[in-house]
Amino acid sequence: MANSSNYKHKVQQQKTRQKQLNRSLSIGIIVIVVIALIIAAWPEPEPEPLPVSRMGSDPALGAEGAPIVIIEYGDFGCPTCRVWHQAGIRDQILEEYRDRVQFVWRDYPVITAQSPKAAEAGQCAFDQDKFWEYHDYIYEQTRSLGVDNLKAYAREVDLDGEQFDQCLDSGKNKAKVDESMQQGFDLGFPGAPGFVVNDRKLPGPSMYETLKGIIDEMLAVQ
User: Fold this and answer.
1) Residue 100 has what DSSP assignment?
2) d(C-alpha 48, C-alpha 130), whole Å
3) Is residue 10 predicted with pLDDT exceeding 90?
4) Residues 14-21: contacts with CB within 8 Å, 24+ apart?
5) Claim to verify: residue 125 and residue 191 sit in the same structural domain
6) Is the peptide bond before 193 cis (omega within 30 degrees of 0)?
7) Backbone torsions φ then ψ of 128, nearest 5 degrees
8) Where are the alpha helices (DSSP H) in 66-200?
9) CA distances from 6 to 11, 12, 18, 133, 198 (A)
10) What range does the domain containing 79 cover?
11) Which helix (H) or strand (E) holds 7?
12) 148 & 192 share domain
């Protein structure tokens, strides 16, 4: 009888310990879930607003104050934008017209889910005065626009990697990208690229002959 009583007592102790363990695990799980929900609901710190001067600054090539200003609304995730760039049309125009033309970039990241962050990356490169090196590298050397890739590309074009990473992670230039994208929407561009030559809107990729004809026409009446 004594052995039987001891056995029952041990079984009861094991059950009690198991209940305590289960209760502790349940409490632990609840605590973890609550913490996770708090973290998920906790608002991320908003980046400092960009100065008005920065909001009004765009990457540009060519002569400041040129009589002809060509604005490209482009997307780093856009295959057509990539083909247009690789055709060398921008460089042809700048080479032919020199101080009579300025070429400006504005972000229109509407093609892929990764495009907006890639646009921010371009603006982070602009903050280090290397937008065009970064722009050209993406269109000529890359395909993926994941955040880790965007950071790696910054190092390939000799940007300050730590400064670039902080800029991209903070969302510092999101407001600038959003403003440029809204301008593209307001112009009614159905996709990227879209162009504006002075006050003339050109949806879709513009071939060299098209741009040349418009530029020559505008220069002739000035």
Assistant:
1) G
2) 22
3) no
4) none
5) yes
6) yes
7) -105, 15
8) 79-86, 89-97, 115-127, 131-141, 147-156, 161-170, 174-187
9) 9, 10, 18, 81, 96
10) 56-220
11) helix 2-41
12) yes
Note whether 9 and 64 are same-domain residues: no
pLDDT digits (tens, 9 = 90+) for 157-188: 999 999 999 999 999 999 999 999 999 999 99
Asked, for residue 122, whether it belongs to a domain, the answer is yes
Strand partners for 106: 73
Using DSSP's 3-state secondary structure scheme, residue 61 falls into strand
pLDDT level of residue 3 (50, 70, 90 thresholds): low
Residue 51: inside a domain: no
- The pLDDT of residue 145 is 97
* Claim to verify: residue 127 and residue 196 sit in the same structural domain: yes
Q: 149 with 118: CB under 8 angstroms?
A: no
> Is the whole-model pTM more than 0.85?
no
For residues 172 and 72, state if they share a domain.
yes
26 and 62 housed in the same domain: no
State the total domains in the chain.
2
Q: Is the domain of 2 the same as that of 69?
A: no
